[in-house]
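agent: user wants the structure for Transcriptional regulator, LysR family from Advenella mimigardefordensis. delegating to structure tool.
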Amino acid sequence: MSIWSSISGCLRIADHHLFAIQFCMAEMIGWEHYRTLLAVLREGSLSGAARALGMTQPTVGRHVSLLEAAFGQKLFTRTQAGLQPTEAALSLQGYAQTMHDTAAALEREASGHGHHIQGVVRISASEIIGVEVLPEALVQLRQTYPLLKIELVPTNRLQDLLQREVDIALRMTPPRQQALVARRVGAIEIGLFARADYLARHGTPVTPEELSRHVLIGFDQDTPFLRAARTQFPFWRREVFALRSDSDLAQLAMVRAGAGIGVCQTALARRDSALVRVLPDIFAFPLETWVTMHGDLRGSRRCKVVFDALVAFLEAYAQGRDSHA
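agent: tool returned. relaying tokens verbatim.
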């Protein structure tokens, strides 16, 4: 055996032992250090992570330093724009996020067992449903079950029920995964609306062609909803929108402000006497709505009561029987 082969073998052994030491050190680091790493990645600074976690900035700095020592690599570099993550930090982000999600799921699961309905239930819904519709349902739930804690995620992005990003999700498409439990609550109708004073100034269109003379409010990026609506209403396309936003809440705010004509849930519009429906016999788009959760949660009492309450509430809302009507 040559001297170079011997040296090469020694280096491989040394590298192996170094990796083993780093791995063991990483194994000894508590979950709170990875939670800190995730917060720094999200906030972009030690001070921001400290505020988000309710910790002191020196403690956050020590957690990062310990992780860097354990892995033998820098995790952040300082720039004028703040802390920039290195490749090493970005490679750890997914694992830290998985640990965060698992810890949250374990906490929710553990807290949901007992003699009372208690613990955390995480719900996702579209922006409009989450902000404009669900708060009343959550008030009713908390009055009935005061030990419940609800985490509401208003987002148009589909949350992964199989990976337990959330416990319960409200969706406008039927779920396809067999592992999910789903209840259809009905079709929530979408119509065109404008504020009365806007129509008083600009007139009320009576045909789709007359919409071209109006300020139309719609999406910026093409969406599944826009593509589906276009199959029935070819005049409702991105090019005609004078005001564009991918936020449903922003679109609704512009309609309410009298900026022009845009879409709104008819049940929601009934709550606002200033809103007037436009082309009701031409533009009526039903959104089939489902309440879904992972099948493994059927044995969770807290998830079941929330699931059933949301189904009942949204069935009434879809049928126009909500308390604001």
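agent: one observation worth passing along. The longest helix spans residues 3-28.
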